[in-house]
Amino acid sequence: MIIESERTGAASGQTYEVRNPSTGEVVDQVPSGGPEDVDRAAQAAERAQKKWGKIAPAERARILHRAAEHMLGKLEEIAPILTAEQGKTILESRIEAQRFGENIAWFADLADKIHGQYVTLPDARTYGLVLRRPIGVTGAIVPWNFPLTLAANKVAPAIAAGNCAVLKPSETTPLSTLACVEALIEGGLPEGVVNVVLGHGSGPAMIEHPLIRKIALTGSTPTGRKVMAAAAPQLKKVVLELGGSDPCIVLEDADLDEAAKAISVGRFFNCGQACLAIKRLYVQEGVFDELLEKIIARARKLKPGDGMDKSSRIGPMHSEQQRAEVEAQVQDALARGARVVFGGDRPQGEGYANGWFINPTILVDVSDESRMVTEEVFGPALPVMRIKDLDQALERANNSPFGLGSSIWTGSMAAAHRAVQELDAGYTWVNALQIAHDELPFGGTKQSGFGKEHGLEAFHEYTEQKAVVYGSL
Ligand code: NAD
Asked: Where is this region: Disordered (predicted)?
């Protein structure tokens, strides 16, 4: 763990193993932290915040830029650590580690652009101001699928706005986060500004800790419910980025080659283990077969393999349990009449014996009652549904408890406009690759959660407004 810039073990002295999802080998032993460690980290962050919150904003920006630059110089060291613990391909790890540093730099640019308001009041001799102040100590709880991106989404706006952070990575992916935070510290990030705690007991302890004033969680919807309930007694602020089941609609007038490319990336990137991912595909009947063929042709090129092997195009799933879950969802769809048109099994051979590999999988004739449609599919399996027209597509797309992302491919402005208005989700891509941009607010509707990451909105979420009245004396 990292508390006050020092590497430290857990107070309990306990450790656990982190394993490589491609090989099953032990990558490292890490401390199994708990409430005592969270307390130490929160106290350290509180002490640090008293100084960090008072540094001139332009200086804060310079410190963060230097730290981010230093971290970005270490991509080649950090990316293999991420691949070893998470399983993703080395290319995916490089992209993700780079996004970590770039995100810190993006929010660093905002550190000296905190603007308030001047407000006239009924008595002309008095006036009001609205200030934006840091919250204090903020907590970040992160899952294993994008350990670095999702940590940066929370920590970068927090520290740029003058807060200090306690960060808890997932139990299974702590090492790359430790490496990134260590690189920021080497690059000049002051003591205690970002502290990292590990272990199962640390998440609940962070929610209960009175010094941690806000919790940002990315995780599953059931975890989101628990975190919200646990935060209620102290009325702690929470941002919840939860599960998704993003629909993608392809109409007959779409550019099918571009759509197929975006669907392949949108479903199979990170071995399908992404919250923002195309998880239900609705294709108009006139182009159904042609588009399906194009998607299958792309899936065929995705050779599964160890993330460190340069020829691998898709890594293993992160754990045995995750793979079993996706396989059970596929079995459920088959039992309800679906057909596999690609994949549906595990790759065979020597390199695959000890990892959680699964082939990219595409199904048709999937009923709307199938688990693949009603639940989140957190792996590389895509149900493709036939639709008559846009009316039917929108109705079926919105028939989900989730509302994270959504997309449409069409040549018609009118159809695109209608989809943008009617898709009930926090994001809609029109004829574009499903990528979350740092510049745009990202967050869900319905059971995908609430609150925003990315963009000015995320920055503002890490400040509190204060009203001030100046009298006439
Ligand atoms: P998870 O919910 O099991 O765990 C997420 C984090 O929460 C981990 O660090 C875990 O230790 C912690 N945690 C678990 N229970 C807790 C509790 N009671 N109190 C405090 N902390 C607790 O999720 P996961 O399996 O690691 O990740 C996959 C899920 O994350 C998927 O559902 C996916 O859709 C979601 N996700 C959402 C987004 C988004 O931005 N909306 C992004 C990526 C992943």
From this structure: 1-37
